[in-house]
């Protein structure tokens, strides 16, 4: 939990809050165009995957809790899934590999979850929600202070990897605060996502390319693992706490633990 002494933000029609101002603005603009809260969440999440790539993105997963105007709530579980070749004791002899090795990569669920939620609640065309993130990736975005510090903290990893260097250190040095980063390959992926939804990512050429690269690096994900992935719709946990009704995500999310506390 983080405490701050900034002024409260009060709005009548909607609020979008993210770690990056640029992404919050994108989400806000979606609401101004008449979009559903889920539309705004999709656009903002895809933006974060570009400008805050170490903490969000198409390669990850998460949860989305949606409460409709009728009072009904549901949770979209888009957590990553272990590949079919994973086994219970696969990290017993080399426990360090379960944290940041190619063997630890799981099948990403974010895109499937966002697409599934949009399909149910979205009011604005999917393409227009993906386009802002694609534009940022292709045309470049300014490195924030936070991203600059993050890059510095993993400098050795970046400099030892050709693909990472091409993006974060194209001239042999880490890009610094105020400089511009371009994600051309991510932009191409987002262009495909804009046009084909989640299909190419989980069933087409993107799934094949990702699985090939992961296997070359020592991972065990196959294209079939991408094809089998499905986001799960779950019922939320609901509890009365000190007179307030709390609606939160069930396992495997940590909502239950929060209610116990």
From TrEMBL:
L-glutamate binds at residue 79. One of its GO terms (biological process) is glutathione catabolic process. GO terms for molecular function: glutathione hydrolase activity. PANTHER family: GAMMA GLUTAMYL TRANSPEPTIDASE, GLUTATHIONE HYDROLASE 1-RELATED. It comes from the Eukaryota. Pfam families: G_glu_transpept (PF01019). One of its GO terms (cellular component) is plasma membrane. SUPFAM superfamilies: N-terminal nucleophile aminohydrolases (Ntn hydrolases). InterPro entries: GGT_peptidase, Ntn_hydrolases_N. This is Gamma-glutamyltransferase.
């Amino acid at each position: 939990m983080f405490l701050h002494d900034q002024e409260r933000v009060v709005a009548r029609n909607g609020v979008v809050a993210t770690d990056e101002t640029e992404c919050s603005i994108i989400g806000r603009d979606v609401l101004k165009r008449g979009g559903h809260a889920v539309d705004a969440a999709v656009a903002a999440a895809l933006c974060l995957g570009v400008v805050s790539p170490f903490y969000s993105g198409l390669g990850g997963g998460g949860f989305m809790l949606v409460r409709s105007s009728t009072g009904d709530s549901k949770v979209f579980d888009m957590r990553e899934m272990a590949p079919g070749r994973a086994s219970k004791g696969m990290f017993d002899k080399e426990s360090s590999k379960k944290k940041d090795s190619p063997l630890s990569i799981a099948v990403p669920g974010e895109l499937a979850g966002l697409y599934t939620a949009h399909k149910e609640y979205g009011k604005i065309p999917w393409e227009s929600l993906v386009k802002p993130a694609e534009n940022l990736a292709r045309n470049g975005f300014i490195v924030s202070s936070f991203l600059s510090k993050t890059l510095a903290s993993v400098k050795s990893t970046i400099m030892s990897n050709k693909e990472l260097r091409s993006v974060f250190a194209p001239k042999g040095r880490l890009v610094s605060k105020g400089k511009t980063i371009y994600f051309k390959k991510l932009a191409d992926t987002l262009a495909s996502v804009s046009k084909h939804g989640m299909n190419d990512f989980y069933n087409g050429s993107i799934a094949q390319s990702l699985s090939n690269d992961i296997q070359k690096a020592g991972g065990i994900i196959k294209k079939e693992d991408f094809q089998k992935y499905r986001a799960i719709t779950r019922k939320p946990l609901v509890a009365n706490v000190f007179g307030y009704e709390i609606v939160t995500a069930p396992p495997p999310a940590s909502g239950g633990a929060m209610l116990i506390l």
